[in-house]
Amino acid sequence: MRTRSLLVVSTAGFLTLGFTLPASADPTDAYFQITGGTLSITVPLDAGSLGTRANTVGAGTISGPLGQVQVLDARSAAAGSSWVASAISTAFTPPAGPAIAASAVSYNAGSITKVGTATYVANNPAALTGVSPVVSASGITGDNSATWNPTISVAVPGGMAANTYSAVITHSVL
């Protein structure tokens, strides 16, 4: 029995000597940086047709979806920040003949899909004659986004000639 005890002690001593700790080294710092992003807006390049209306003597309205509009706010905005998306329209003009003024063009944002912490409000201007707020965000904390598909309505005066009328609707965000 003495031999076994001595053998066990010898093995334990060998294992202790086999595990030496490495010499300590100075710690290495590592880091990364996320830079502030931007505030941007994307809009459809071509909305296509807003609809068709029969030529009549009386006035009427043509309405249709413009397509998805999205504001991305990656500014890492300070708490309480805000942004305002705006739109303006040119007159709806035919190849020849009288135009339908931008004052007859209204904008309804509809439902807003929201990401992030903010209060979003659809402003729904009745006329797009000047730069008009369409959706705003306030009380922002950090990054956020809003997406909507507005309906554009054009009040067509009575007696307009049969033709194709087109306009340019421009969005911006500040």
Overview of the structural elements:
- Strands 1, 3, 4, 6, 7 and 9 form a 6-stranded antiparallel sheet that branches.
- By secondary structure, this protein is mostly beta strands.
- The chain is built from 1 helix and 9 strands, in the order αβββββββββ.
- It starts with a helix and ends with a strand.
Q: What is the overall number of helices?
A: 1
Structural class: mainly beta
Tell me, what's the shape?
elongated
For the termini, the CA-CA separation is 88 Å
Helix content range? under 10%
Poorly predicted runs of 5 or more residues: 1-16
Regarding quaternary structure, how should these chains be classified?
A: single chain
User: What is the mean predicted local confidence, pLDDT?
Assistant: 88
Give the strand tally: 9
| Percent of sequence in beta strands | 35-45%
What is the radius of gyration? 33 Å
Largest sheet: 6 strands, antiparallel
How are helices and strands ordered from N to C? HEEEEEEEEE
Question: Topology of this protein?
Answer:
Layout lengths: L1 H17 L20 E4 L17 E6 L3 E5 L7 E9 L15 E4 L4 E10 L9 E17 L2 E6 L12 E5 L1
Which features would summarize this protein structure in a list?
9 strands; 174 residues; single chain; mainly beta; 3-stranded antiparallel beta sheet
